[in-house]
Write a structure and sequence with these properties.
Layout: H1 6-36, H2 38-41, E1 45-46, E2 49-50, H3 51-81, H4 86-92
């Protein structure tokens, strides 16, 4: 694996940390924000359930799974942007890996 300069590594981790904070804020709002507004959201219904119940039981889980896929895609793009792509690592280390 190639060495990465400190300023590039700092920018990489700063961008990754920023994204993680954004994902955690979205997760918090979806998971706990619905509870704060449950009375107002009970006017809506999805599949016969009040909206706040549906978001707590199903919606938060679905949003979490969607965030996982978004994180994977965005992380791959960030890795490519900073030259930490998996294919580059394979090219750099080709012939130097032992298969056990």
């Amino acid at each position: 694996m190639k060495k990465i300069e400190k300023n590039i590594a700092d920018a990489y981790f700063r961008e990754r940390t920023r994204n993680i904070i954004i994902y955690l804020i979205i997760w918090f709002v979806v998971s706990f924000g619905v509870v704060f507004f449950a009375e107002g959201l009970s006017d809506f219904s999805i599949n016969g359930f009040p909206f706040h119940y549906f978001m707590g039981a199903q919606g938060a889980v679905v949003i979490f799974i969607v965030l996982l896929f978004i994180n994977a895609k965005v992380s791959d793009n960030i890795d490519r942007k900073y030259g930490i792509d998996e294919s580059k690592n394979e090219q750099i280390s080709s012939g130097k890996v032992l298969d056990h």
